[in-house]
Specification:
- There is one protein chain.
- The chain has 96 residues and is α+β, with helices and mostly antiparallel strands.
- The protein has two domains: 58 residues, 3-Layer(aba) Sandwich (Rossmann fold), CATH 3.40.50.140; 33 residues, no CATH class.
- It has three helices and six strands.
- The strands form two sheets. It has a four-stranded mixed sheet.
Length: 96
């Protein structure tokens, strides 16, 4: 099974790959080698779900409903995430 490393930006991912893998293979949005998958995330991968996800009545704000504190916070993928980020969340690479 591979170890996944997520760097904050592409150039940091390259430096990490050089440091811990040495000779790596560049794939579509990540680097692979020596039992590691190294990718990057520019911005947030996930965000908090909008209030209407918890209850349709929260779609239109009403002061009487505030504060909205769910029993469990739900996360949703960031629609502005890059192709690489979406792939990481929805279709991770298979283990090496």
């Amino acid at each position: 099974m591979a170890t996944l490393v997520i760097a904050e930006k592409p150039d940091v991912a390259v430096k990490i790959a050089q440091a811990i893998i040495g000779k790596y293979t560049k794939k579509d949005g990540y680097f692979e080698g020596n039992g590691y998958l190294i990718t990057f995330a520019v911005g947030h991968l996930l965000g908090l779900a909008e209030p209407e996800v918890y209850n349709e009545r929260y779609k239109n704000w009403d002061l009487n409903d505030l504060p909205i504190i769910p029993n469990q916070f739900l996360l949703t993928p960031n629609p502005k995430a890059s192709k690489c980020q979406r792939r990481l969340y929805f279709d991770p690479p298979s283990p090496v």
